Amino acid sequence: MAEGSTTRILLADDHALVRRGVRLILDGEDDLHVVAEAGDGAEAIEKAREYQPDLAILDIAMPRLTGLQAARELSRLLPDLRILILTMYDNEQYFFEALKSGASGYVLKSVADRDLLEACRAAMRDEPFIYPGAVAALIRNYLDRARQGGSMPEKAITDREEEILKLVAEGHTSQEIADLLVISSKTVERHRANLLQKLGLRDRLELTRYAIRVGLIEP
Q1: What does the record list as coiled-coil region(s) (predicted)?
Q2: Prediction pTM value
């Protein structure tokens, strides 16, 4: 990005009050400007396509698609888009998932007024932003892997299964999920059956509990 130019930002969070607060922080800077807002991950993808922002700031816990799911899709659709994850969760697993999903930074809401501006500018310089608490997690994870001679554990389910799990847990019917993901309801049912088998679960209720436990939806 040319020096002196303004970074155009897409801001996605399902709480309007949070969006308003974050927007105040960003729009108070000469080089940062929020051009679009979204209330969930799916809307974030639509707005990114429409507005072609330079940077997307995504909350993790959102309806329809989480910030991590949206980040994966946006990284595929718009490879030049920079992505930051904004979250209340100081959680190692989310942090590593954020990096794997294509995000270049992970900012805690509790210190957004301190860290967010620095994170935005680092992202636009193509530099990762790592909040202080995550540095210890990174070092610990690296040392553990080195000692064990292993690599990062693979996720138990695929990205598509995760999408379907989230939507099932949110109470959508198979046909609604099929319409949202533009696949057939038979494909949805097949994925759902695979999820139950892989995770050793029996029904929608247990799937919902699992989705809450791994942070796909809020309780």
Answers
A1: none
A2: 0.68
> What is 159-213's CATH number?
1.10.10.10
How many residues are listed for the chain in this entry?
219
Instruction: Mark the ranges of the chain whose per-residue pLDDT is less than 70.
Output: 1-4, 90-93, 131-138, 140-142, 145-146, 149-155
Can you give the pLDDT at residue 154? 59
Amino acid at 85: I
Residue 211: which residues within 8 A CB-CB, separation 6 or more?
165, 166, 168, 169, 217
Q: What is 64-94 written as a DSSP string? A: SS-HHHHHHHHHHH-TT-EEEEEES---HHH
Pairing of strands 105-108, 129-130: parallel
In whole angstroms, what separates CA 30 from the centre of its chain? Answer: 27
Residue extent(s) of CATH 1.10.10.10 domains in the chain: 159-213
The Cα–Cα gap between 32 and 76 comes to 24
pLDDT digits (tens, 9 = 90+) for 112-162: 788 889 899 989 988 878 766 666 666 766 677 667 765 545 567 888 999
Q: What is the CATH architecture assignment of 7-143?
A: 3-Layer(aba) Sandwich (3.40)
Task: Please name which of 41, 164, 155 lies closest in space to residue 100, comparing C-alpha atoms.
Answer: 155
149: left (phi over 0), alpha (psi -120 to 50) or beta: left
